[in-house]
Amino acid sequence: MTALSASPLTGKPVALDAASFTLDDVGLTIGPARILSGITKRFEANRIYGLIGPNGAGKTSLVRILARHHEPSEGRVHYAGRPLGEWAARAFACSVAHMPQQLPSSQQLCVKDLVALGRYPWHGPFRRKSSADQAAIEEAMRVADVADFADRLVDTLSGGERQRVWVAMMVAQAGRFLLLDEPTAALDIAHQAHLLELLRGVARARRLGIVMAFHDINIAATFCDEVLAMKNGKLIASGTPAEIITPEILSAVYDIDMSTMPHPTTGRPIGFIR
Ligand SMILES: Nc1ncnc2c1ncn2[C@@H]1O[C@H](COP(=O)(O)OP(=O)(O)OP(=O)(O)O)[C@@H](O)[C@H]1O
């Protein structure tokens, strides 16, 4: 059975699983720099994808293309069947949420006000927040466990607390796809696990697609349904963690001898330097 939801803005029913990204031979050149080339890939709803690869591989650039912060120099990108460039900004923001690598300063906003910004694409500049908006904000703060500091200024929070507030904003946004660039970079190991469990729970409950960039291959292998290995702006391989976290692929991608073994409890592969 196909799950349906109301389309942002039109209100007409749309199939939730139709919210997928397709990239066809996508390239990105900025000035003299060839940053991405030949990327062909489909990102489906209800699936969690992890981008891995060394510094400069193109992970952030690919996430930024999906978030419409970069326009591809070549190839085509569609979201939910429409060319990315044809989406109205507000409709796109109702459907796709992006958390950048460097979280911008939240100026003088308190936590609940930043989370409330997630509802902005839904009510727009001319309508006040409805009770449904308010309920979504409160639910998002509860899910991301930030309600206890709802009145604190965001810029006074620790890096990890701030990341959770951004996740709450994305949850309040209630889109179909989440794009996150190194969401666990500022977190200790327990908070990494907590944040990724939180994202996985939200993704499964709402049938969301998630694309995340990671430096930690083992985190990617643990939390993602599919891992994409990038190098020099190209997609080298993609598949299940077991297919990608192999000595051959990791050694080729990171240019260093690597081994793998199954995790003693989950059985998922772990990669390490030999
Ligand atoms: N605006 C830009 N102008 C010129 N070069 C750029 C620009 N943005 C990115 N690059 C270059 O493109 C390459 C890919 O960068 P990108 O940030 O996408 O890689 P990454 O895999 O996310 O790296 P990291 O793991 O270090 O964050 C890098 O060599 C980077 O210097």
TrEMBL record:
Give the coiled coil ranges. Answer: none
Q: From the record, give the transmembrane residue ranges.
A: none
Q: Which UniProt keywords apply?
A: ATP-binding, Nucleotide-binding, Translocase, Transport
Query: Where on the tree of life does the source sit, at the highest rank?
Result: Bacteria
SMART domains, per database record: AAA (SM00382)
- PROSITE patterns named among the record's database cross-references: ABC_TRANSPORTER_1, ABC_TRANSPORTER_2
Q: Which GO terms describe its molecular function?
A: ATP binding; ATP hydrolysis activity
The cross-references to Pfam families, in alphabetical order and at most eight, read: ABC_tran (PF00005)
**Any idea what job this protein has?**
Part of the ABC transporter complex HmuTUV involved in hemin import. Responsible for energy coupling to the transport system.
Q: What is this protein called?
A: ABC transporter ATP-binding protein
